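Q: Give me the 3D complex with zinc ion.
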Amino acid sequence: MNHMPTALARDPKDFQFDLPRTPPPAPLAEKIHPRAWAAAGDVASLRGGPPEETIRLVVIHATAGATTDGAVSVMEAGRASFHWVVPGKDEAAHGAHVWATCPERLAAWHVRRSCAHPDICNGATNLNRASLGIEIVNRQDGEDPFSDWQIGAAAAIVRYAWAKYPKLVHVTSHARLDRDRRTDPGANFPWTEFMARVRG
Ligand SMILES: [Zn+2]
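A: Here is the predicted complex, encoded as C-alpha cells.
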C-alpha cells in the first residue's frame, strides 16, 4: 500500500508513508549516547531474527519533554527505549549529530505490544521486533516548534535505515499505532515536509 498523505494531513493519527525500494546510500551523523547505551541491554529485547530480515518499520515519536537527558532517564528507569534521539533546539548536539541510544539489532520498547494498524506489517502486533524508534525532543505542547534541523535529522535517520535494511517499507507515527493513548509526534510535526525530505 502506498500512503501519500495530503497537505491537509494534520492529524498525527494519519501520519504514515511507505518507501519505494530504491535506497541511496546515506551516512548518518550520530554519536553513541553512553548512558543510554549502558541502559539499553536491560530495556530492549531480541528481535527474533537478524535486523536485515526483521526491520520493516520506523516509528516517529516526540519526547513531550525539553531534553535528551529527560528521554534517556526514561531508559535508565527501565520504562521504555528507542534507537535514536534527535536533540532539542537548546542542546549542544543540535545542529551537529543525533544520539544513538540503543543498538539497532535489538528491539527497543517504544510501541505497546498489542498495538497494530491494518496498513502496517499486515496488521501484526509485537511491532517493536519489526521496528526502529526515533524520539525527537519536543515539548509537544502545541506551541514548541520542531526546528528545520530536527526534521532534516529525523529524515536522515530514515534514509540511513532505508539504505541499510532491505525490508524496511513503513514510516509512521506513534499516534497511528496507539490511537487511544498517544498523539506523538503531535500536530506540530510537519509530516508532509518530513516525507518529502526522506524521499529526497
Ligand atoms: Zn511515542
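A quick observation: The chain has a mean pLDDT of 93.
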